Amino acid sequence: MKQQRKIILCGRLYDGVTREWKHNWEILVDGALIAAVGPQVLRPEDAAEIDLSDCQVTPGMIDAHMHMDYIDWHTIREEVYTTSEEAKTLAIARCARMALGRGFTTVRHVGGITSNGYGVLDVKEFIERGYMPGARIVAAPVFLCTAGSHGDLSQGFARNPELSAYMQKQRPGLGSGKAFFANAVREQVKYGTDFIKIMATGGFFTPYDSPVQQQLKDEELEAIITTAHELGKTVTAHVYTRELMQKLIRFGIDGMEHGSLMDRETAAMMEDKGIYLVPTFSPYEEAVHYDPEKIKDKQPEFRKKLELYKDALRAGREVICSSRIRLGYGTDFVATHQNYESGYEYEAWMNSGMSPFDALEAATRTNAGILGLEDRIGTVEPGKYADLAGWKRDLMTDRKALLDCSFVMKEGITYGNLLQEDSGSYPPGNN
Ligand SMILES: [Zn+2]
Questions:
Q1: Which of 170, 252, 325, 342 is most deeply buried (CB count within 10 A of its CB)?
Q2: Cα–Cα distance, 127 to 382 (Å, whole number)
Q3: Distance CA 274, CA 271 (A)
Q4: How far apart are the CA of 379 and the centre of ligand 1, in A?
Q5: How much distance in Å is there from the Cα of 401 to the middle of ligand 1?
Q6: What gap in Å lies between CA 210 and CA 229, rounded to an integer?
Q7: Neighbour tally for 183: CB within 10 Å
Q8: How much distance in Å is there from the Cα of 110 to the middle of ligand 1?
Q9: How far is the CA of 425 from the centre of ligand 1 (A)?
């Protein structure tokens, strides 16, 4: 059945192309696509009118760094062993639906935290086929990593080596040696990954490693990047320090996540080569704008590292914010907010002195490029998917405005009924 054409009246429109609000513009949507946009578009007789004259209208938002396979960040460590792979797949489906309801029409899943598996690709396909509502998914189901690394969730059970060793063996993409990793890339491509994600250094949230450790050998990094490129896939890395970021740049990496301890020299190299960074500001807010009271609420090992690196995190944040690096918008919520609460990152950008347009551009056009979907999404232009969001709170002055979506359309379909959805918690009944 052909969808009815729609005219959307936008009180103010940010189109993702220019950094300005266009007043009282109109969008003509035909089926899944934008047919026209301008101060006044042609009005077909059959077109339904959607009045968003009291809204700021933007392209559908994109979150470029999500882990969708858990229900509640408070119980994420338990979920690793208390929920089935099937339940984890349902958690991914729920996250995609909640994200869509919040105006994030596309998300990038950068590897399962609690799951071993490929359920995200099934959810992605089900959403694409229209079997269920949800944000469009771009996914790397599995991240490549080594024993005891940030990607090795069995390190949480390291005091029980038998259990830990068993769990480690269940983890695809975890291994050692350049032959293993070259083949792991081939396998991930076979199973349908959209890109390759690696855990190049330790992290903040894992108990027994450190963000300054290099956790893949040079020859393993090179094997991963070369093999991925041979197969036409991009590679992004979880990484924090200048030394390893510079190494990855020399090896030809396409993008990086976090970069939170980087320096100016590294920024210049990235600017030079057009390498993107998804800086994921929000999880480090309490350390960067130091707030010992708020840090107290965090899980113990995360708290300890935030305290230890707070000055370095602040310095790194300043470098990132004053750079001309291609910055993407991503949240990485595993320890501070629920995975679908992507609007919190907007506040973090504002708190660091970034302009609203910096954040909006990152979350729309720049992220579309990072996801390799620049021809389909990220701007409001004829021929692109009709992915749109409407916001009643003022995005220019209200740092929490991106948490409060009033209207969402994906591929020409409106999803008003998802907007009021409550989150619940895990285990059920734990509210
Ligand atoms: Zn992450």
A1: 342
A2: 23
A3: 5
A4: 26
A5: 24
A6: 29
A7: 14
A8: 7
A9: 21
Q: How far apart are CA 381 and CA 14, in angstroms?
A: 11
Return the residue matching tokens 């609007």: 343
Identify whether residues 22 and 106 lie together within a single domain: no
Least Cα distance to 280 among 328, 241, 236 occurs for 328
- Per-residue pLDDT in tens (0 to 9) along the chain, 431 residues: 566 899 999 999 999 999 999 999 999 999 999 999 999 999 999 999 999 999 999 999 999 999 999 999 989 988 988 999 999 999 999 999 999 999 999 999 999 999 888 999 999 999 999 999 999 999 999 999 999 999 998 888 899 999 999 999 999 999 999 999 999 999 999 999 999 999 999 988 888 889 999 999 999 999 999 999 999 999 999 999 999 999 999 999 999 999 999 999 999 999 999 999 999 999 999 899 998 888 887 888 888 999 999 999 999 999 999 999 999 999 999 988 999 999 999 999 999 999 999 999 999 999 999 999 999 999 999 999 999 999 999 999 999 999 999 999 999 999 987 765 554 544 444 43
Same domain, 202 and 142: yes
**Is residue 431 a part of any domain in this protein?**
no
Residue 398 lies in a domain: yes
The residues near 233 (Cβ < 8 Å, ≥ 6 apart) are 185, 189, 193, 194, 195, 196
Same domain, 209 and 248: yes
Beta-carbon neighbours within 5 Å of ion ligand 1: 332
Dihedral of the alpha carbons of 35, 41, 44, 45, in degrees to the nearest 10: 150
Residues 124 and 46 grouped into a single domain: no
Q: What CATH number should be reported for the domain holding residue 23?
A: 2.30.40.10
Note whether 210 and 227 are same-domain residues: yes
Q: Which domain holds residue 204?
A: 61-370
Number of structural domains the chain divides into:
2
Q: Is residue 430 in some structural domain?
A: no
Residue 241: helix, strand or coil by DSSP?
Answer: strand
